[in-house]
Records
---
Amino acid sequence: MEAKSETLNGNRRRRWMTLVLSAFAGTLGLAASPEAAVKKVPYPEVKVEINEAYSPDAKFQALITNFAAAVAHKDAPALFGLVGPTFVWTAGGNLTDDFDLGRDALHNFKVVFGFRAAGADTDGGVDNGPFWDALAAFAEDKTYYKAFDSGKLICSPLGADAVDEDILGQARDKIEPPDEAAEWYFTLGDTAVARSPGDRGAPIAKVGKVALPVLSTAPAGKEGEPAPTPEFLEVLLPSGKTGWIPAASARPLAAERLCYAATASGEWKIVGYDQPQ
């Protein structure tokens, strides 16, 4: 299971950092995940506990407004001015091997988001960089949570944890082939599951706060064209049946997150990027 997780997260980061990413429903987009990678069989229900949401105060909102404006205008100097002096790059809360302890916070931020190659002293030279689309996905997300009870570190998008990690592991073993993994999303609350995208008939099921593997999205994109913004997610239910939920009702269980904190003067800054462990 650990080897599978490392393979999955390495692949997810490569996909994300090469801009196979879309912003939708206020969250990070779903990278392509073939249906064949998921076995359509019953699996244990994976209940989740959603992190405590944070409602921005005026000073935090000012940072978010400035962040969105800098990204929208691709104003790199303005963006760099929002990066805190203690910006860190982590995976599951622990420093990554990619984080350069010998360089300053801004250097590491630039490497994360493709403004500069790792180890370089000047900007540029990164394939598809800078990753403005990835930054836009963070800027457009409007869900935040307290990473700790103190509320001193705020991250986005909203996250959740499996109530029982062993159950999640059992579910993954049931439906995921060796060396492949599903994209798991969690529902934000009671959610009706439809027979087809946008179907207004009687739901085939209802779920609470659970994690579900996503099989596909709608509307479907056309080959050679940018992926459309997903409006619906096809999910595999614990019963082994499939159905559709609104994209706005779910968030990725394992997602890249951007974190913020206030300086001693009370000014909020971007202080961390956390990738799935």
---
Amino acid sequence: MSRLIARILLSIFIFPLAGILHIIVFVNAVRHNNESTAFLVAGAVICIFVAFYWLVLWHKAVHWTNRRTIQTIGAAVGSVLLAAVVGGVAAGINSGFGAFIGTVTAPLLWLVATVLIWQKTAEERALRLQNSGTDTIVCPTCGYNLTGLKEARCPECGTQFTLDQLLAAQPSRTPADLET
């Protein structure tokens, strides 16, 4: 099994594990606090658990840059703020329900944000292919590996090129490579 498949399978377990942990923490916290406070405590524990689990699981697969790090932290702050608004609106129905909805929304929003933030860019894909040691041709628009295709159209993004345009746009090609 590849590491990527293993990570994807382990990613699936984040929700049932978080749910079980939420129930355990909530049941123990509600003994000493009111329902809303117990939901907030359980939610805070779940946020920390989800962030830790997700980062440990995917940190080696992500090409970390300063920009990605800042965006990931910003996504965490933004997710908590947006979840507080959603929880506040839901608290109009019931304060415990609002606390539950707000604390569940925050990690879900952060997970979605990290999926978008941590995606490889076209440049990163092209660099990875270039460093793989094989002679590859990549789409200059999206970085998709075009090696072996019979036409100069990217099946990933649909952009069409002439062969000259495609070869000239390759990051690993020097003018001498293009003349041969």
---
Amino acid sequence: MQGALELIGELRRWLCELTGMPAVALSPKAGAHGELCGMMAIKAALAARGETRSIVLVPDSAHGTNPATAALLGYRVESIPVRADGTVDPEEVKKRLSREVAAIMLTNPNTCGLFECDIVAIADAVHAVGAYFYADGANFNAIVGKVRPGDLGVDAMHINLHKTFSTPHGGGGPGAGPVVLSAALAPFAPLPGLVSGADGIRLVEHESEGAKAFGRMCAFHGQMGMFVRAMSYMLAHGSDGMRQASEDAVLNANYVKACLKDSMSLPFGDRPCMHEVLFDDTWLDGTGVSTLDFAKAMIDEGYHPMTVYFPLVVHGAMLIEPTESESKASLDLFIAALRDLAMAAKRGDTARFSAAPYYAPRRRLDETRAARQPVLRWTRPAAQSEAAE
């Protein structure tokens, strides 16, 4: 066990260094699980102060799991509108702050692919009323080696190890969602935890040893396989390599934006984005083609569609995240395919889109019906006679 615990301990040290945070809980299994962990630590810290606050602030542009997590823990969610430039105004946050606010949950870079430049002012305002700042770490791969969340006033942030330090976005599971914690929240980290001593590293698994821990998130310490992959990634890249990966992710997204901005519309103007570029459906007005049609037609071109209809603050959103792993050659092919589709839509070739995909093993599904009435058991199809018979 000492070898495994040593690796976990080293991973913990690297994560604390990269985020500027003093502690990390490694047991959460994925991003949403990490959100729950961070918010449970916040709730435990408030309870230790004898407070039972009732409100969590969530920007309109947040991931859907943010309000869901807050609601699961019994909080009332209050939305914060985003400005015309896609970011959160500190003044809008201050209007909603009171001694009933437990925390704000904010992503930086946000889900519009933009850096929240006023994040320090937001954090200061939140802390002034005794509340905590939870940062959604889903987009950490845009700022690794460039910005430390702890320096921005963040109290808790989950990290998607499987995305930031291992598998490109959309690569599938398994996942791991460690949560880094500020000094104020560190004592409330869940069990189990690691303790280093003269006899090596050991797991603290019992409440008597972790007196303030809010409890246990899962049976074991976390996804060991993902810990190995993330640590291997970090050691292979080094600090300069991880910083370059972030810079490459941002460069790739801005390259896609620059090459498509004359064909597709940008909801927040021609300003630099972070690791993902967001388009809306304004450019499709009058074509008879929807965002969904366009996304399905991409399958016929050999591409998995981008994230569509999210974030909700943008109508017909198309969110493209190329990540750092794409070469310029692969990006050029992707851009050429999208430009060809855009020109087809604008010249009225609706047949190319209306029932796409045409060449995939499965044609277009009624996704709403599939979600509401899933067929969970395979049944043998009825026998059919062959034409020669």
